[in-house]
Design brief:
This protein is mainly β. 12% of the residues lie in helices and 43% in strands. 23% of the residues are buried.
């Protein structure tokens, strides 16, 4: 009797598997949209802007780079022009281009007969007084990672948003949004002083003794903070069965452009890896 029941279930399972059908989904390509990745800070340096276009949903190819665009940033009585140094990558012509506190800056892009613009404000950033490294070890007592500890005081009054970026020997080691720490003073606390507070971390295999670790502390606008959270919510933080339906990510780029133009003041500090 048990053997008979087994064969019945086997037949049912075989029927279910044989009914599986591959379905091809065809999506309309739609118009390509400009995608902007632009970050302009108070640091006197060559700033970089990346321009690309959207691609088909199922495309396995790299997103198209945008070449031949006219790019500039204006604000605070200054006008900074950008030139294309490689496909889709534009650098400021002045190697000391920078934002100034208390000014609003406008990014202007002309491409393929279309004009795009975005604005953002450069607000004050708390002083990053000191940083230190705190070693952490795995169960075999091997060095695993370093916590990056900070000494700083949050700005008084609620309504400030921050992010932190890590460099080793002047090269960013956490350069994607999913790796950048971002926070609102709603959670940090208003006007608090932080001493030896772990705000970031770095893998031990990313540094060696004598390397210079630099931490950048940025004060970003609310529109930037909201855009970062929205992007993460639609990408890195997706995957659960209770996720909300996909939604368009907010952007401050006009003319139906995508991406974010970020202006931020920066305070930074360094430490040598022991």
């Amino acid at each position: 009797m048990r053997k008979k029941q087994f064969y019945i279930w086997l037949l049912l399972l075989t029927g279910i598997i044989s009914c599986t059908k591959e379905i091809d989904i065809e999506l309309e390509e739609g118009d390509r949209r400009l995608v902007v990745d632009a970050w302009f800070t108070t640091q006197q340096k060559t700033h970089e802007i990346r321009l690309s276009q959207t691609s088909d949903y199922f495309s396995q190819e790299e997103t198209p780079k945008v070449s031949g665009a006219d790019v500039q940033i204006a604000g605070g009585g200054d006008l900074w022009t950008f030139s294309e140094v490689s496909p889709g990558i534009y650098h400021s012509d002045d190697p000391l281009a920078h934002a100034k506190l208390g000014n609003t800056y406008t990014l202007s892009i002309t491409y393929d007969g279309q004009n795009y613009s975005a604005t953002d404000y450069c607000d004050t950033v708390p002083s990053l007084d000191q940083i230190a490294l705190s070693a952490n070890y795995d169960q075999n007592n091997a060095l695993d990672w370093y916590d990056i500890l900070v000494w700083t005081t949050e700005l008084p009054g609620y309504g400030h948003w921050y992010c932190w970026r890590v460099l080793v020997n002047s090269e960013y080691v956490k350069d994607t949004l999913s790796e950048i720490s971002i926070e609102s003073d709603e959670y940090l606390g208003d006007g608090l002083t932080f001493q030896s507070f772990p705000i970031e971390w770095i893998d031990a295999d990313e540094v060696v003794s004598g390397d210079t670790v630099r931490l950048e502390q940025h004060n970003i606008s609310k529109q930037t903070y909201d855009a970062f959270i929205a992007i993460l919510s639609e990408t890195e933080w997706k995957g659960g069965i209770f996720d909300s339906p996909p939604a368009n990510v907010p952007s401050n780029i006009s003319n139906d452009g995508l991406g974010v133009f970020v202006v931020s003041a920066v305070s930074e500090a360094e430490v040598i890896v022991p």
